[in-house]
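User: Run a structure prediction on this.
Assistant: Running it now.
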Amino acid sequence: MSGIYSVAIVQHSPKDGQPEENIALGISYMREAKTQGADIVLFPECWITGYWCPVPEEESSLKPADELFESSAEFCDWCASVCTAEQISRFADAARELGIGVVVTGFTAGRRLPQNSAFLIDSSGRTVLKYSKVHTCDFGWERYLESGNEFPVGDVDGVKVGIMICYDREYPESARELMMNGAELVLVPNCCGAMAPRLMELAVRAMENMVCVAMANPPGDDMGRSCAFSPIVWGEDGRAVSNEVVCASESYDGILIARFDMDRIREYRAREDLGKYRKPGAYINLRRQ
């Protein structure tokens, strides 16, 4: 793929536990994104299922999952209410019909507990990869999710794409693994507040790994701020430039289009040196893990 690659970033809140309504709305967003010339659509975290857990935080800090399985029918129902293959296939069918890629998200079945996952689907409707959130928020109710264990990268219509979900962003290893696995574009389904410092994180992840980054977050007080960053931080005259491509307000509700000039970005990646001259022999703590 050469020329402009456009990412439609959806800033909207799905409804918790209402998959049919979320799916219908998601496909309508795909249709709207296609009319705006997008190549791929990015949804926030847990679009199909909603991002929620029925266990109160004060209770989740006390009870292990084994006890909840025995004492809470609501918790058992939540563990069972994961995305189905049929639900994912409806997004794949829409992608094929429209000729547009999509990253669709939701809770999926793990070995025993759910996973927080994203499916990367290309414009032919092919599921390129499934990614499950590696850095689950184990300080809260996300301790009831099973973590993923890898950062895969796949080819979507000629662009090498990887995914990290929300809290993965807080760990530089996430984006670095994706870069080392060949990613040119990192897509970030998100659902959290305190976005000001997190925008700085994403800008740095793009810079230090020379990858494009786009993040989708639901709107709300101290939330929103869906955004995209280019890896380009040095202008042709050698001076530093802002790498922000787009950024929504907290309250904006709808689609934000981020356009990446892949020819210019690939030329920049070939020319510049960020991330190329690593010295892993000196990374003692990484060797010890």
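The domain at 4-288 is CATH 3.60.110.10 (Nitrilase/N-carbamoyl-D-aminoacid amidohydrolase).
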